[in-house]
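Note to self: keep these together.
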Amino acid sequence: MSDDKAGFVLQAVGFDELKGWKDDDPSSLFEVMEACRSQITGTKPYRTGSLGLSTDDLLPLLDAARNAKPASASDARSFFEQNCRPFFIRKLDGSRGFVTAFYEPEIAVSDKLDSTYRFPFYRRPDDLIDLDNSNRPVGLDSSYAFGRLRDGEISAYPDRQAIDQGFLDGRGLEITWAKSKIDVFFVHVQGAARLRYPDGRTARITYTAKAGHPFSAIGKLLVDRGEIDRANISMQSIRAWLAAHPEQVDDVLWHNRSYIFFREAPVAASKAGPVAAAKVPLVAGRSLAVDRLIHTFGFPFFIRSESLTHLDKGRPFQRLMLALDTGSAIVGPARGDIFTGSGDEAGELAGTVRNDADFAILIPNAAAGRFGR
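Structure:
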C-alpha cells in the first residue's frame, strides 16, 4: 500500500524479515494493551490517523491479548505472529526512519513562591480555547490547535516570551514553582515531570494544552549559530551551553515560542510511568511517541536501530513498542520518540538518542488485508 501524497509506502514482510525480532521479549506489553482496551471501550476511542487504521481495527488484537498468558518471550512473540502482519514503513525519498528519546524528569519544587523557587508551572488558562477549521481565524496557520478567546474575538495566544515576562501573573494558575527556568523549559519539552517537595511529598504534572505556537528546537538554533557542533548536539550539551552563557538564556529559550500548560496527576505507583496522550501509563523502553496525524495510538511498532546501542548495553536497539504518545517535534511516518523512564538516569539515556532506525508497524490480521496482506 502506498500513500504518494504522504511520501511513504507500506511494504508487507514476514516476521523472519524483521532483523532482531527473535531476540526481543515483548511480554511487558500485555498489561498496557489491556489498559488501552479499557480506555477505548470505557472512555473514548483513539482518533484515527491518516493511515486509516482505527481502534476498531485494533480491538481484535487487544481482545485476544486479554486471554493470552505468555509464559516466555517465545510465547509473547508467537502471540503477535499469530494475530498480526508486519509492514515496513518505507519513505519514498529513500531515507530511513529516525528516533529520539524522552523521559520524565524529577524536579525539586515548592508550593510557595520565594527567592529560591521563582519559576512556575502553569495550569491551562480559561481564555485558551481549542481551535479547528470551524473557528480558526483567517490568517492563523492550520498548525495552531489552540488560541485565545477575548471579548468574542479569537487570536493567537501570547508566546513563551510574553508569558515569561508576566502575561499570566495574578491569575492564580501556578501549580508549583521550580528553581531554574532551564529546568522548567526542559519539562516543557518532555511534557511531564515528577515533583519533589521540601517536605518529602511527591506529585506529578503532565501536559494538558499548549499556547499553540509551533515547536522550534533550540538545539538546531545553537547548531545554526555555530555554538555547538552538530555531531555533539544532545540535551546534555545544550544544558551545558546554557549554564555557561546565562546572559543568553532568555534569548535562546524564547526562540521556542511554544509554551506548555500542565495538569496535576496522581503518582499511582513509584515505578509507573506518566499518563500521556493515549491516557495510559507509559512503559519505559516500550512506549513510543508517533505522529498522531498519521498513526493511531495503541498500535505495535517494531523499531530497530543498529547504531542505537547505549539503551541495551551495547546491543542494537530492537524492540516491539506501542504507540502511546505524540509530540510537536514528532513529524512523519517513520519518526519516533522512545520513552526511557523517569529520573536523572533515564534523562542521561534519553538525551543522546538521535539515530536512524527502521520502522515496521504490526497490523492485526483482519485489517492487514486492506494493506496488501
